[in-house]
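The authors assume throughout that readers already know how a fold can be written as discrete tokens. For illustration, here is how one protein appears when written out as sequence plus structure tokens:
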Amino acid sequence: MRLNTPPPLRLPGGRTLTLPLVLAAVLVLLGGLLLAWPGRAGAAADPLISRGKPATASSTETSSLAAANAFDGDSATRWASAEGKDPQWIRVDLGATATVSRVKLSWEAAYAKAYRVEVSQDGASWTPLAEEKAGNGGTDDWTALSGKGRYLRVYGTARATAYGYSLYEVEVYGTVDGGPPPGGAFTVVAAGDIAAQCTASDSACAHPKTAALAQRIDPKFYLTMGDNQYDDARIADYRAYYDKTWGAFKAKTHPIPGNHETYDPAGSLAGYKAYFGSIAYPQGKSYYSFDEGNWHFIALDSNSFDQSAQINWLKADLAANSKQCVAAYWHHPLYSSGGHGNDPVSKPVWKLLYGAKADLVLNGHDHHYERFAPQDPDGKATADGIVEIVGGMGGAEPYPIEQVQPNSQKRISGQYGVLKLEFTDSGYGWTYVGTDGQVKDTSPKYGCH
């Protein structure tokens, strides 16, 4: 179809202004207006400062629809509140005082008819930035905002449906005091129950395959969750089996012992200590801690949880910690759906970690993979709980799933593999990768407490 061309615009003195020149003039004028509009130019240039930051909410519909999903950059994940209740809110901790210039909300079908966007310096007293009284869902892009605070929340006062409130993404743009927030991302590979008494010449031998996979991932470092060498963890067996596979990256490994390390005829942990040396005893004990980025890692010896020395050390270590995020790992899991089942030996440790707002616990012992929703030491699901992973598929013979425990979200038995954990300065997530290189499970994205 041909478009009619308008006649040229006549200017004084007989000059004419054709359509291309008219359009150019209009664009120049619009550009000037945009630059003159207070806050607009700055808002366009300000960076995204909320991605991966710790998030909380007044409620969640299920543990898989957690608040962190709205800040993970994944448009396929979402936060959803409990159904049928007003008001509800979701908030993010930006990590430091920030000047907020723009907030973009991507609603799911359960959207807010009325809500406020608010900021706070202390998480208690809130100042409104924007208010919607007749929302229609979709995407709400609030620009030219001007507010200052460490925390931002979306406070829903009226639901548009009979359900709850649900957001795919909340994007906060602005500037953080002191410059852009640090990223601090790093990868860790973890596994427990690793080296059977076999070698790569045996096609059924699994630990050479998990070691090859772990080495291909090439993480910042490796964690082992005990029972590194079967059956009695003698130094000769470590040298004959573990050293030929996982030993290739021993210098980058932070190990802990399992119960099989105590069976050594030469003495409890004798072979383990002889093989790893100061790597396993960096602070002179079989338990220790170290930092990476904004994370504090605590390596514990669950064979001696009944001894006051380790418990007192843990209390002091937690009290001295200055990092926002905390992960701990040891052998015997408090909760497990495998053959060994729940082991209450670590419940006092869980209580200490929960009181210190720890985020993640990694265990072995049962030879399967399993992840749990955040829960407290008594097994009650709660948004501020600890996430536990059983990762005992490093190479020892698999155990079947026997009795599924409450809050267990995913279980895999019979497929060897490793945990590939992704950490940032404010959160974490992981995949369980099989020895065939395929991802067998992907976790939700979690923010640190």
Observations:
- Confidence is low (pLDDT under 50) at residues 1-44.
- DSSP finds seven helices and 24 strands in the chain.
- The helical segments are 19-36, 40-45, 207-217, 235-240, 270-276, 308-320, 347-355.
